[in-house]
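Hi, here's the filled form for the chain we discussed.

Project: internal
Contact: R.S.
Residues: 266
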Amino acid sequence: MQRPAWPERQRSGGAGPERQVRAAEDQQQEERHPQHEVGGFIENGKHGSARFLRGFLPVVLVAHVVAFVEGVEQRTEEHESDAPAAHLLEPPVAGVDLAAQDAEAQQVGLFALLPAVVDAVSIPVVATGGIADARGIVAALALGASAIQIGTGFLRCPEADIHPAWARALGHTAPEDTIVSRAFSGRAGRSIKTDYVRAALSDSAPPIQPYPVQRGLTASMRAAAQRNGDVQKMQAWAGQSSSLARAVPAYELVRTLWEEVQQTLA
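And the returned structure, exactly as it came back:
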């Protein structure tokens, strides 16, 4: 299968003010949360950190709950010079807190969406959402993805440093035990369907407030849940393939996934 070639890595010369500000923000984020850089990808037989993708523009990041396909080609052309991939689409995937206005109502499965996007654009497409093992990787590559990004699949790795109660819960969370809601912050994100989330979405619950008001309202509950190990009140982000996540070091997981991909393709 012929896939679009990766664009050349952006060079540092002549960085404008906007790029300098973005670089400063990235550095500040890394200083605040260095232990959370555990996302990974597999591309053309190689593996590495998801941060690698920042050096390539443009690319399209396709997630399993993106609400639309129409207009993707036009938007990639408009942003081809200096836009990060995540600005092109707004999916409420696990661990992502986004402002899509109707994300809960408009959800398209990754393996239906992926070939449609691949056919609509001529630049590399990165598939993400619900992929956590070799079978998902191979399927996405077969549907035209140039690379795979894995999120929840890395959350049980020690480098993620999430609460042990959350990590244990991921190990037995079925796809139907997750839900997209605005219960924690006022923005859409997929989490475990905990007691709090069920209560917040019930007919008798008060209306969920917009971001950042809702985030402020739940702050004390979330902090107490972290202290007490109460996953039922924790902001427990989770993808639909959470139960496939493995409690092994990140480097070992990436190596094992690639070996399994090669075995599957042999």
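Let me know if anything looks off before we file it.
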